Amino acid sequence: MRTSILILGSLALFMSCHTPKNNSQSLPIVPSNPIKQPMMYTLKSGKNSITFTSFGVNLAGDLYLPEGFDSSKKYKAIVGASPFPQVKEQVLATYGPEMAERGFVFLGFDYLGMGDSPALPGEHKQSRYMFRLIENTWDAVSYLGSLPFVEEVYGLGVCQGGSIIASAAVTDHRIKKIATVSGMMAADAFQWTDKNAANQLIAAANASMQKQYITGKPDYVAPFGLNDEQSREEYIGEAAFPEMAGESYDYYGRDGYRGPKAVENFTNMHIGDQAMQSLISIGEAYADKIVQPTLVVYGADAPTAVCSTAFIDKLTNTHEVLAVPNFSHVDFYFKPAAVKVSTDAVAEFFAK
Fold first, then answer.
1. How would you classify the pairing of strands 319-324 and 57-65?
2. Of 287, 328, 291, 290, which is closest to residue 309 (Cα–Cα)?
3. Bridge partner residues of 277 (DSSP)
4. What is the number of domains present in the chain?
5. Measured distance CA(168)–CA(174) in Å, rounded
6. In 3-state terms, what secondary structure has residue 215?
7. Is residue 1 part of a domain?
8. Are 78 and 106 in contact (CB under 8 A)?
9. Beta partners for 181?
10. CA distance 153 to 172
């Protein structure tokens, strides 16, 4: 019962109307074919704004480089995959510096239609679709592989990013190892136990898709019931599960750690047909096909733990598990103690 009722409040940990912010597209860039460009050698330790090509457009990214970076040396690189519906200034901006501090190159980027990355012509912003996320990830791997100082590429996914990385790795063996943190790789049990609730989400998503096709205009909704204007008291007061709502608000809410006031390019509003793809658990379906060594880190007592444990049960590769007590799902997004545990574990695993 506990699992079934979490779908509506927690499709708040990763999945009505308000127009999202108009995101700026002006960025200093490193070209997506940097081997031929001397501009690549202006890269420096710390955060570098870059772009790379996917679906024929330039996606915006941040490339984090270790202290004392030397372009003539070789480094292990990580492509990061973020939670739904995040942009690169959120979890990836927490994990990027941490992994660079541990000696890795780290790429965080905005998926097609998100943050500083454009939507395709004729399409709408805030349209983060699962199958495109996988292809964007493959192109991010290609970008990292084009950098002469990158020796190997690994994948790190947090929350929905865990499913993205796991799914991308099935047929992209250029990714040599993967790690997931609070990963939503096996979300079927989490999302479909209450099939009536799931089908209500589908009905709303189907209606939104039809509306957008007919009008040609975006239909923005609040997937978690959380918009950009609510106070903590207002949101929790309307929530069926106040504790979970409080945890979500403290990160995503108007006054949250990485909410719309703290992160200019972020909004809680999202395209209305999102559930048509987010309800498909690709990572779980293909877990037994993953050949790369895999690390799974999750909060042992978090309500989303089943999304990691059910995935682990289906793995047939070499894998390691770190189930951490006393940390929730969202703690691993930004709480210093939880982030230290996860980044230390990931660094040790990738360094082997």
1. unpaired
2. 287
3. none
4. 1
5. 10
6. helix
7. no
8. yes
9. 158, 297
10. 11
**Which residue do the tokens 């047909």 mark?**
273
Phi, psi for residue 137 in degrees, rounded to 5: -65, -40
Alpha carbon distances (Å) from 327 to 151, 182, 185, 294, 330: 34, 10, 19, 21, 8
Preceding amide of 85 cis, omega within 30? yes
237-251 pLDDT, tens digit per residue, is 888 778 888 999 999
Asked if residue 106 lies in contact with residue 45, where contact means CB atoms within 8 angstroms, the answer is no
User: Would you say the C-alpha torsion 269, 270, 273, 277 has a positive or negative sign?
Assistant: negative
CA terminus-to-terminus distance, the chain = 41
- Secondary structure of residue 63 in the 3-state scheme: strand
Q: What is the pLDDT of residues 54-108, one digit of tens each?
A: 999 999 999 999 999 999 999 999 999 999 999 999 999 999 999 999 999 999 9
How confident is the model over 255-305, as pLDDT tens digits? Answer: 999 999 999 999 999 999 988 988 887 888 899 999 999 999 999 999 999
CA separation for the pair 112, 126 (Å, rounded): 9
What average pLDDT is seen over the chain?
89
Q: Which two tokens stand for residue 223?
A: 């997937």
Torsion of CA 112, 183, 342, 340, to 10 degrees: 70
Give the residue carrying structure tokens 């929350």: 159
pLDDT at 41: 55
Q: What is the DSSP letter of 202?
A: H
State the residue range of the domain holding 222.
6-351
C-alpha–C-alpha distance, residues 300 and 248, integer Å: 18
**Two structure tokens written together for 225:** 């019931």
The domain spanning residue 192 has which CATH number? 3.40.50.1820
Is residue 154 in a domain? yes
Is residue 298 a part of any domain in this protein? yes
Tokens of 50: 């870059």
Residue-level pLDDT at 238: 84
